[in-house]
Amino acid sequence: MNTMTTAKTTPTAEDDGLEEVVFDVFARGCPSRPTMEHVTGRWGGLVLVALADGDLRFNALRRRVDGISEKMLAQALHALERDGLVVREVKQAIPPNVEYRLTEFGSGVVERLQELIGFVEGNMAGVLAAQQRYDTAKANAEAGA
């Protein structure tokens, strides 16, 4: 699997040439790493997938992502919006209505996350069995120590 992505960018407005930029999520200073963390962190992926079915208001998102605090949801949404995965739209109403939706990039990320979620959920019987074996072996090792 190739973990490096090549992107063409225009470095400055005065420069008509294109510069090749290689992003490597494994490199400490690579700007792709924080975005990867926002997508794969505790809440980011869940927020993105919750938006897969359509636009949601803040409280509807909070209800959908069970267990997320208001503060953590706000932080996740800010990070995902900054990364270009989510758009925040303020609709003029009384009271003001704010909705969040996926961008095209966000939709592409969600497709991949949904595949991963399905794979994990489909293999949970094996995961639970592995956890049980591990816990039993660890308890036996500690009892014998």
UniProtKB/TrEMBL annotation:
<dbReference type="InterPro" id="IPR036388">
    <property type="entry name" value="WH-like_DNA-bd_sf"/>
</dbReference>
<feature type="domain" description="HTH hxlR-type">
    <location>
        <begin position="30"/>
        <end position="128"/>
    </location>
</feature>
<dbReference type="InterPro" id="IPR036390">
    <property type="entry name" value="WH_DNA-bd_sf"/>
</dbReference>
<keyword id="KW-0238">DNA-binding</keyword>
<protein>
    <submittedName>
        <fullName>Helix-turn-helix domain-containing protein</fullName>
    </submittedName>
</protein>
<dbReference type="InterPro" id="IPR002577">
    <property type="entry name" value="HTH_HxlR"/>
</dbReference>
<dbReference type="Pfam" id="PF01638">
    <property type="entry name" value="HxlR"/>
</dbReference>
<keyword id="KW-0804">Transcription</keyword>
<keyword id="KW-0805">Transcription regulation</keyword>
